[in-house]
Amino acid sequence: MKFRNGPNGVHLFDRLSGLNVLVDELRPKEAVWSTSPRQVSIALTNVCDLHCSYCYAPKHKASLHTDQVLDWLKELDTEGCLGIGFGGGEPTLHPDFLDICKRAAGETQLAVTFTTHGHRLTPQLVGSLKGSIHFARISVDGVGRTYEEQRGKQFASLLRGMESIATLSPFGINVVVNGRTVAELDAMSELAQKVGASELLLLPQQATKAVANMDGVVGRALLDWVSHYRGKVRLPAASD
Ligand code: SF4
Fold first, then answer.
1. Rounded CA gap, 109 and 94, in Å?
2. 57: Cβ below 6 Å to ligand 1?
3. Which parts of the chain register pLDDT below 50?
4. What H or E segment, with its residue span, contains residue 161?
5. Ligand 1 centroid from CA 89, angstroms
6. Ligand 1 in contact with 90 (CB < 6 A)?
7. Helix 185-195 to helix 216-228 angle, to the nearest 10 degrees?
8. Three-state SS at 4
9. What's the CA gap between 134 and 126, in Å, rounded?
10. Cβ of 50 less than 6 Å from ligand 1
11. Which UniProt keywords apply (predicted)?
12. Measuring from atom 6 of ligand 1, which residue has the nearest CA?
């Protein structure tokens, strides 16, 4: 169990169970408030083997140095950060991805999470990561042919990735919402429930050189879908 002091009280967090409790009867003095963000995301590498049109990750091939990342994590941990999320690019393409996750889990009290496209989750990688990952996120933009057109990868391969991730840790599904995927929100929420995902995170498409921001028509359809949603899988806010 980790404690984090702040202006709203004392935050208790257990990375194994995901338990989050804010004890607001306690008001720590400002001098002991945590100085780090509650959650930090780190793009381990810009490298990715997919070419999604709505990808806004920088395209030059840069990766962070492992020791530098671990130094940051230890400092964040000491200063009261609760969790770290590795992304990219595709974080599993960082040459030291496994080592970084193991050291992050073993040398800090941070909850370790990562976001992946899911096509590199071999049984060997998943087996080696077990115990070092507290939550994972997999990107699912549409089902069947829509997914294949959006991501340029076989949907069957994504399904295998989801099967693998389900054996690793609790996991959530990330969806880029645009004119194609908004029509498949029902199908994706059903899929999320079927594969055992605990969250469905809806991310409005952001403009890149190749695509525009999610437009108003899609935005209204998204709001309408969310307001009528009765599914069992939680819809977190992007800031959760
Ligand atoms: S899988 Fe993710 S990082 Fe890779 S191109 Fe697509 S959006 Fe970008």
1. 22
2. yes
3. none
4. helix 155-166
5. 6
6. yes
7. 50
8. strand
9. 13
10. yes
11. Iron, Iron-sulfur, Metal-binding, S-adenosyl-L-methionine
12. 52
